[in-house]
Structure formats: C-alpha cells, structure tokens
Design goal:
alpha+beta; Heat Shock Protein 90; three-stranded parallel β-sheet; 15 helices; about 45% helix; about 20% strand; binds adenosine-5'-triphosphate; binds magnesium ion
Length: about 350
C-alpha cells in the first residue's frame, strides 16, 4: 500500500486527481485512515492520521537528510515506548538500517517526491518491519552505468545487496543494503526489494531469491523485517571489509548519561498528557526500557512544571512501575525530581494503593 500511496502522491504532483473509495469493512477502513494511506492517496478528502498508538508509525514523507532525521527520531521514540524485551543492539540495528535505506533515497533515487516511510510493530512475533519507498530511477538504472555487463534488473538487485557494491565509490561504500540485509538475516527477519523489473526476497528459512516481474516497479521499495526475539549480534552483522562497525545513535544522543551515569527524563516534554492511563502507558514502558538499557546510574524523572496528574496516570506510570520492579529496584533505578507536593501526594497514594492490591483497574 505504501507504494500505491507514493504513486498517487506523484499523480497529485502532476495535477492528476486521485479519489479513494475506502473499504467497506470497518477494520480495514480504520487501517487506511490510521496508516495515513487514505491521506496520501486522496489528501483532498482525508485528513492526516492522528494515530498515536504503538502498533505502527503511520506513513510519512521525507525529502532531505534533515526530514529523514526527524522521521527516524520520531520512529525510535515510538518504538522505545512500544516495545518491551528488546536489547540496546536491537534498537541500534533498526535505527542503522532505517537510516541507510532512507539515505539511499536521498543519495541515489532522484525522486521528485522524496521518500516515504512506514513502520509496523509486530508485537506477537517480536519483530519490527519498515518499508521505504520512492518513485525515482530505481536500483537497476542507478547501477547499470557502473559496468558494460548487460544484466537484467533482478540481477542488479542481487548485486546491490553485496558488500562494497556502489554506483560511485566517491559517494558511498556499498555498505547500506548489504548491512541491512545482514541485520534481517541475523535477526530471523525478512528482506524484500522491488525495483524496475526486479524482485528480491530473502529470509533465513527460504534463502535468497531474485526474479523478474511482469509489471515493472518504477522506483524502489525496500521492506526489512527485523526480529528482536533474541538479542542481535550487531557487530557480526555490521562487519565491513573485516572491520566491525559500531554505530551510535538515538539512545546515546537523546538519553546521554551525565557524569554520574544518570539519564535525565523530562516528563513534561515526554508525556502527551497527564490525565489518562492512555497517556501514561507509553511513558511507563519507555521508563522501564530506559532503566533496563542504561548500564549505570539512574533515570532521573524531572517533574518540573507539572502541577497536577490524575490518579489513574500516577498509577499507570509510577504505581505499576513500582510494583513491577519492587521497592529496592525502583529506588535503585529511578529518582524523582522537582515534584510538586500535590503531585507527590498523588503518586504516593497511587503506589500505596497498588501495593495493597487496591481498587485500580488494570
Ligand atoms: N532508492 C534507491 N534508488 C536508486 N538506486 C539505489 C537506491 N538504493 C540503492 N541504490 C543503488 O544501490 C547501490 C547500493 O546501495 P548501498 O546502500 O548498498 O550503497 P551506497 O549507498 O552506494 O553506499 P553506502 O550505503 O555505504 O553509503 C547504490 O550505490 C545505488 O546505486
Ligand atoms: Mg547506501
């Protein structure tokens, strides 16, 4: 669908109107709206998605490196609040691969529309899947001028994912697609590219297959599914020319520990509200993940500027976290700073009530 929606955007740009008739099925209709497909296919009739849940990051567009960074940061922010039981390396792997595939759009695609990006979180199978699509020249056309060999489109796709294959060694090193493919392999994931008349599919169970398609795809679609059931051996996946690459990323930059190893977490910036369980749930997961992933020090939750929280929010975040970890681990992992006396009272009460198996609903 992301590819169809991207194509429709191109039509709109060429002043060709597109009209979307939503599916009759209510669930599908909701999916079309939430995922932003409806908006990108027919922006005249459909507003942008307001979905803020944890099942997906709705389709979005980026047209340069800055917009790419904003998009990737937003995705990582959602994933940190959505996933549980993943390792730091898993998140770094997702960030690295996402950036590489999106960067290719900016560097090689010559797309008039920039690129489109969408992320789906498969919670039950513990995998994150991203799709990046552009309506540019395609991988075969980009690589064809590099040699006199007369290769078919699908053969070019097979070349593109090999280590060191690049259209121009002054621009790139040919690591992006190779590393992304390796990450999907090492994490029991899947990798899929469509470009020109080529299709490439790779998974651990069925191996690597390339084939020629009947209908050409003008542009490039890359879909990478990265599993996080077991911690990924990132240094193994990202070994280039025999040297291990160690990327730093979102977690290191946004939650950089201070000199004592503490991470600052500004609740008034992080939380979308303070009145509901729905606002509290992603915050609790994020706090729990940060505490688990940070090797030393505590997570310092700064409540400055928050005059009031609802009891359900206090319970959803602090009550549940306190019971989940137990008093000693909670005190070891978290410090609350700049707490208004009223808010302190509400948090205390939420914790006492939850400890005594009080009346809160789950
Ligand atoms: N979206 C795209 N549109 C057109 N061509 C692409 C696209 N993505 C990749 N390619 C082609 O595939 C080649 C290999 O891509 P890859 O990301 O592996 O290496 P690179 O971008 O050249 O170098 P690096 O990723 O190390 O900076 C590119 O050089 C380019 O020719
Ligand atoms: Mg690249």
């Amino acid at each position: 669908m992301i590819a169809i929606a991207a194509r429709c955007q191109e039509y709109w740009k060429k002043s060709i109107d597109v009209q979307l008739e939503l599916p009759a099925d209510e669930k599908l209709k909701k999916l079309f709206r939430n995922s932003n497909w409806a908006y990108f296919i027919d922006p005249r009739s459909h507003a942008e998605s307001r979905y803020r849940g944890v099942e997906q990051v709705p389709m979005l567009r980026f047209s340069d490196a800055k917009e790419q960074q904003i998009a990737v940061d937003r995705i990582l922010d959602v994933l940190l609040a959505a996933l549980s039981d993943f390792s730091r390396a898993d998140l770094t792997a997702i960030e690295w691969a996402l950036n590489e595939v999106a960067d290719n759009v900016n560097n090689h695609a010559q797309s008039t529309m920039g690129g489109f990006l969408q992320v789906t979180n498969f919670r039950n199978s513990k995998a994150v899947e991203f799709a990046v699509c552009d309506v540019g020249i395609g991988i075969p056309s980009s690589l064809r001028p590099t040699t006199k060999d007369n290769k078919r489109d699908h053969e070019w796709l097979d070349r593109a994912i090999r280590e060191g294959v690049t259209r121009d060694s002054k621009v790139g090193q040919g690591n992006g697609l190779y590393g992304t493919w390796r990450i999907t392999q090492k994490s029991q994931g899947q990798f899929h590219i469509m470009s020109g008349r080529g299709s490439l599919v790779s998974s651990q169970s069925s191996g690597l297959h390339v084939s020629e398609t009947q209908v050409p795809f003008s542009g490039t679609l890359v879909i990478a599914r990265i599993g996080y059931r077991a911690p990924i051996a990132l240094s193994d996946a990202l070994t280039f020319r025999g040297r291990q690459h160690e990327p730093t990323g979102y977690l290191d930059v946004k939650y950089e520990p201070d000199t004592q190893g503490n991470i600052n977490f500004n609740l008034s910036i992080e939380s979308s509200g303070f009145g509901s369980r729905a606002a509290g749930e992603p915050i609790r997961r994020k706090l729990s993940n940060l505490a688990r992933l940070s090797s030393a020090g505590r997570v310092v939750v700064d409540l400055a500027g928050i005059p009031l929280v609802s009891s359900s929010y206090a319970d959803e975040v602090f009550g549940k976290l306190f019971v989940e970890l137990g008093p000693i681990s909670f005190a070891k992992n978290f410090e609350l700073r700049n707490v208004d006396p009223l808010v302190r009272d509400l948090i205390d009460r939420a914790i006492y009530q939850r400890m005594s198996g009080g009346p809160q609903s789950a």
